[in-house]
Design goal:
InterPro entries: AAA+_ATPase, DEAD-box_helicase_OB_fold, DEAD/DEAH_box_helicase_dom, DNA/RNA_helicase_DEAH_CS, HA2_WH, Helicase-assoc_dom, Helicase_ATP-bd, Helicase_C-like. It catalyses: ATP + H2O = ADP + phosphate + H(+). This is RNA helicase. Its EC number is 3.6.4.13. The chain is an alpha/beta fold. It has four domains: about 190 residues, Rossmann fold, CATH 3.40.50; about 240 residues, Rossmann fold (3-Layer(aba) Sandwich), CATH 3.40.50; about 130 residues, no CATH class; about 80 residues. It contains 28 helices and 24 strands. Strands 3-2-11-4-10-9-5-8-6-7 form a ten-stranded mixed beta sheet, with helices on both faces. Helix 19 packs across helix 20, helix 20 runs antiparallel to helix 21 and helix 20 crosses helix 26. The radius of gyration is 27 Å and the shape is globular.
Length: about 750
């Protein structure tokens, strides 16, 4: 065994062989149609056929269920309050001039080169070899004939990159753009880049993407990848999404909060557009909806979308051997590190994929691998860590897709984004820690928290499948077989466990006043809705009747959560807009500080230069000002343990927020100078619920919920006692920790939110 790691960690992970292998035909593809009106036994049989790789032949690898009934009409009733309403004058003008208003020149004027065209021709062969290619014609046929289709396709089948191109080639973008929504920014960017290459044009012309703070698309983009949050924002200015002819809701199985809201919105919009067409409106085109999922639980989506047809697309899958640990692991990060080096020294070539819970864990693991890799014997090749997470710049993200140099092995460090959102080549080994970060919300006490929790069985199977895309693989589960048996089958949809404030504000801003009657696929709890409405009222986004106020309308225009939006609006009154924008930008990354395990004391000492006695928010502001005073010098960043990559991201976000502020009529240069106490009072206007008071025994008790909370060790206020504190987030590990902490005076609270604290003391 690998002596250097074994002696350093004094640990070897022992795995038992449970004998489970998953295999499917390596060169076959199955597209199976189903209808929600089919019997459950028939549906189950189709599931089993797809799972087991059963392929029926009727002249090709495409299977069509001849007996399935046609999908139900999409003219069924909708609960949306917008149904049947006439378009506003503004919307009519948008429709009348939709074609004329398109720019004659694309935003990205980069010419299509011969190299791009040649690259597209080379990629054509690869495209035609994907499992989904044999289902191309039937997919086009079903999308043309049905208003809504549910497509289930395994990761690696090619559904997300190929289906939009098939529809483009079939002429379905003649009257509008094909939109593909993604839960994650990383996926939207990488998918758009890949499809632009395959189409043979520069990114931003025929194919573009749009994410928060970054938009490469133009009005002439025919395929547009975007986050679900961006599409919700587009609804503010285009209630019927008239620029889109096809909307593909991808990764539907993840059931994020925004995706669930989009389900209800596009379902209602499709009905409204069809109603207007039925009344003789010739200037409106019907909307096609495609729901795409990587898991086989598709009947619920079909039932929700008026009995939409279901198509199953199988992918390539080689055998994957699953190895569970013999005993539970107390430290899954440590166990993952040891397992990675065991694989590197004992197993055949092939890259490793480790699933971790977040950026902090990923960066710590990256440093540990680099540190221990220096002790490997000369006969063993290098082990190269390749992290991927949302805050990375695009060029760094691309490294995970590049082949490892000869004689080396990559180890990809990823969150659950690598379960289904992206396909990484050459993965032979998966290390599944069995955990992920999950946002939780206790509506009874109004406390939101970020928790590390066990994954579901569905996620475990998806992770396992990453090892068998190109060759037989191994999946090392850092939990016992009994632990797997105790996992939930599927994750609870976010809408049932998250704070609903952003979703409710979006719904209100798009004209849906009575959110309790919105057509949710899974209805959130009544207490969750009421608590979120109460908080929006306290933020002055809603009036006494629950209607959206002018402040609420302005808040909805900012691409940030409601508390941050309130801070930005409050900053104009308190004349500290510059500082508010800068701090919010700094909070858009996990941390701007770097603390290598081997130099932790030096890093802490360097950080003291920027530390504010008032806490973390002003410490961040001090750091940004110091960074700009040296013009972002990389040597300075290295000496002061500042993450230069994250700082560049901060500057990008600041630039975008400045533009949003200017559009709202605010002066982003308005500053409070040296009177920084005003900045903390300004933030309190948005975060009055995230406060705690010092108790006689020296602990802090949260004002909301009465929880005993502790200042996180990473905070500049750790170990210090102040009469009151404000914090950005509550994290539960061994106990309730608060992060992003600043000191307050207790008498500021009633001034910051008189509606909220007035009610509590009434």
């Amino acid at each position: 065994m690998f002596s250097s790691i074994q002696s350093a960690k004094r640990k070897v992970i022992t795995f038992g062989d449970d004998g489970e292998q998953v295999s499917r035909p390596t060169n076959s593809s199955t597209a199976t149609e189903s209808s929600s009106s089919s019997s459950s036994s028939s549906s189950a049989k189709k599931h089993n056929d797809t799972q087991n790789g059963t392929t029926k032949h009727n002249g090709s690898n495409i299977v069509q269920d001849k007996t399935s009934s046609s999908s139900s009409s999409t003219t069924a009733s909708s609960t949306s309050e917008e149904t049947g309403q006439r378009l506003s004058k503004k919307q009519k003008r948008q429709l009348q001039h939709q074609q004329d208003s398109r720019p004659k020149k694309l935003i990205n004027k980069e010419p299509t080169t011969e190299a791009m065209t040649q690259k597209a021709k080379e990629l054509k062969k690869h495209r035609n070899s994907l499992p989904i290619y044999t289902a191309r014609d039937i997919i086009i046929k079903e999308v043309k004939e049905n208003a809504c289709v549910v497509i289930v396709g395994e990761t690696g089948s090619g559904k997300t990159t190929q289906i939009p191109q098939y529809l483009l080639e079939a002429g379905l973008a003649a009257h509008g753009t094909i939109s593909v929504t993604q839960p994650r920014r990383v996926a939207a960017i990488n998918l758009a880049r890949r499809v632009a290459e395959e189409v043979g044009t520069p990114l931003g012309q025929k194919v573009g993407y749009s994410i928060r703070f970054d938009d490469t698309s133009s009005k002439d983009s025919l395929i547009k990848y975007m986050t679900d949050g961006i599409m919700l924002r587009e609804l503010l200015s285009d209630r019927l999404l008239l620029r889109y002819s096809v909307i593909i809701l991808d990764e539907a199985h993840e059931r994020t909060l925004r995706t669930d809201i989009l389900f209800g919105m596009v379902k209602g919009i499709q009905k409204q557009r069809q109603d207007l067409i039925d009344r003789g409106r010739k200037d409106i085109q019907p909307l096609k909806i495609i729901i795409m999922s990587a898991t086989l639980d598709a009947e619920k989506f079909s039932e929700y979308f008026y009995g939409a047809k279901i198509m199953y697309i199988s992918g390539r899958q080689f055998p994957v051997k699953i190895l569970n640990t013999v005993e539970p692991q107390s430290d899954y990060v440590d166990s993952a590190l040891v397992t990675a080096f065991q694989i590197h020294q004992d197993e055949a070539p092939g890259d490793i994929l480790i699933f971790l819970t977040g950026q902090e864990e990923i960066e710590n693991m990256e440093k540990l691998i680099e540190e221990y890799a220096t002790d490997l014997p000369p006969t063993v090749g290098k082990l190269i860590p390749c992290p991927i997470f949302a805050a990375q710049d695009t060029s760094t993200q691309q490294k995970i897709f590049e082949p490892a140099p000869h004689g080396t092995r990559k180890v990809i460090l990823a969150t659950n984004i690598a379960e289904t959102s992206i396909t990484i080549p050459n993965i032979r080994y998966v290390i599944d820690t069995g955990c992920h970060k999950s946002r939780g919300y206790n509506a009874k006490i109004g406390i939101e928290s970020l928790l590390v929790e066990p994954i579901s069985k569905s996620s475990a199977r998806q992770r396992m499948g990453r090892a068998g895309r190109e060759a037989p693989g191994l999946c090392f589960r850092l939990y016992t077989e009994d632990s797997f048996d105790q996992l939930e089958e599927d994750a609870i949809p976010e809408i049932k466990r998250c704070n609903l404030e952003s979703a409710i504000l979006s719904l209100k801003a798009t004209g849906i006043d009575d959110v309790t009657r919105f057509d949710f696929m899974d209805r959130p709890s009544k207490s969750g809705l009421l608590r979120s409405l109460e908080h929006l009222y306290a933020l002055e986004a809603l009036d006494d009747e629950g209607k959206l106020t002018d402040i609420g309308t302005k808040m909805a225009a900012f691409p940030v959560d409601p508390p941050y939006a309130k801070v930005l609006l409050q900053s104009e009154k308190m004349e500290c807009t510059k500082e508010a924008i800068e701090i919010i930008s700094l909070l858009s990354v996990d941390t701007i500080f770097s603390a290598p395990s081997s130099k932790r004391e030096e890093a802490n000492e360097a950080r003291q230069k920027f530390t504010s006695l008032d806490g973390d928010h002003l410490t961040l502001l001090n750091t940004l000002r110091a960074y700009e005073s040296v013009k972002g010098d990389r040597d300075w960043c290295r000496e002061n343990f500042i993450n230069s990559r994250h700082m560049r991201h901060v500057l990008d976000v600041r630039k975008q927020l400045i533009q949003f502020a200017e559009r709202s009529g605010m002066d982003p240069k308005k500053t409070c100078g040296h009177d920084l106490e005003i900045v903390l009072k300004c933030f309190l206007a948005g975060f009055f619920q995230n406060t705690a008071l010092l108790q006689p025994d020296g602990t802090y008790k949260s004002i909301l919920g009465g929880l005993t909370v502790s200042v996180h060790p990473s905070s500049s206020l750790f170990g210090k006692k102040r009469e009151a504190i404000m914090y950005d987030e509550l994290v539960f590990t061994t106990k309730h920790f608060v992060r992003g902490v600043s000191a307050l005076e207790s008498n500021w609270l009633s001034q910051a939110a008189p509606k909220y604290f007035g009610q509590r003391h009434a």
